[in-house]
């Protein structure tokens, strides 16, 4: 059995060919898609976060709105770039959104990916300390965020506060019980997956990772997951971790499906560069008739290792078509693979 959700990049384009022509279109349709996905029986609604781009950015208003309109579905991010974040304020935003959703937030965070502008985090008021990199800064923000999420008091109360305080040191409010265990790290390498395990974060692995050995993408990703689980056990955490992988998967059941995605059936892994000289491997897309998809996906080692599968959706094609995409997988593919 697997949890199956969707992952939206939240693009919008002022084009007659796009169903999302403005930021408002993307935000409102994201809410509608999450509500429809819950009605279909999907398990998660996840959203990418990018700054300085015509995509979804600040996630917490959206997550809170979805939380208020749904009852069961997990609501998350994949991923928030921690180079841009004030950890204290993020604890407040995340806590409020999680309480509105009744404890259903699943927050994916990471060092971040290449952005639309040079050193965009500087415009948000952040810069690495002397001798540190932006990746170091992201990890420092993350460690503070995780610590404050635990809910312990650390701030000395004022001697004459405006309102009465509880005894002892004060914590950031509102506190969301259990959210600390629902933080995921988007890892691009085996080493960062191991680091995430040591920090007690769940693992979120995307459709790309740094190439470490030359094996097919799904094999390398499965190795990454096994390294994460081994490190988790060695760290001595008491609860079981979760692992998600994302995939572009389209079951071709209509002529419109074939027109949009038929060519993706010839997709293969590819090699590229996303962060300076570091070579990355990009996983293939899947597009085929349902019975063929079942055979192909059964051979994907990383999907087999993960407990959660996030389906990337083409949000610019509109809510109705994306509901159809999800329904195809949930109805025609997942049961045959034992995921349902």
UniProtKB/TrEMBL annotation:
Residues 9-251 form the Luciferase-like domain. Keywords: Oxidoreductase. SUPFAM superfamilies: Bacterial luciferase-like. The keyword DNA-binding does not apply. InterPro entries: Bact_Lucif_Oxidored (IPR050766), Luciferase-like_dom (IPR011251), Luciferase-like_sf (IPR036661). It comes from the Bacteria. Gene3D superfamilies: Luciferase-like domain. One of its GO terms (molecular function) is oxidoreductase activity. Its EC number is 1.-.-.-. It is an enzyme of class 1 (oxidoreductase). This is LLM class flavin-dependent oxidoreductase. It comes from Lentzea sokolovensis.
